[in-house]
Amino acid sequence: MVRSLLRTTLTFAALALVTGTRANAQTPAETEGNRMERKGNQEEKAADAEKARGAQMEKQGKAKEKAGKKSDNKAEEDSGKRMKKKGHAIEKEGEARGDEAKKMEKSGSEAEKAGVKEKKAAAKAKEDEKK
């Protein structure tokens, strides 16, 4: 009895899965929008990592500069200043990349919404055609 119930349940689950995927076919605009959103998310994560790396480098440069001043080591002080400046530049570059990634993600979302509207309009036209 349990086996029979299990078989029946699996059969219905498989049918639901198969029919559900056909009903949710995506339009090209939706597919492109999803791709753009995923790429934007990846870019945003990479930009956040770059920002963190730049902030860490800037922090290390400040510490190195301070240590150079304290020990009257001009070379170490200059090295710290350069490191701080480079870290700041990397951080700003990461922020810019993050902003671009957010724009890409937003445009992907808009493209996906347009695809959904297109699919709804096509379904409505098909329904009206049947009447």
Explain what this protein looks like in three dimensions.
The protein has 131 residues and is an all-alpha fold. The protein has a domain at 32-109. Helix content is 93%, strand content 0%. It has three helices and no strands. It has helices spanning 2-23, 28-70, 74-130. Helix 2 (28-70) packs antiparallel against helix 3 (74-130). The protein starts with a helix and ends with a helix. The mean pLDDT is 86.
Which SSEs are present, and which pair or pack?
Elements: H1 2-23, H2 28-70, H3 74-130
Compact overview of the structure:
The chain is mostly helical and 131 residues long. 93% of the residues lie in helices and 0% in strands.
Notable traits:
131 residues, mainly alpha, elongated
Would you tell me the structural class of the helices and strands? mainly alpha
Major beta-sheet overview:
none
Helical fraction: over 70%
Spatial separation of the terminal alpha carbons: 46 Å
Succession of helices and strands: HHH
Strand content: under 5%
Poorly predicted sequence stretches spanning 5 or more consecutive residues: none
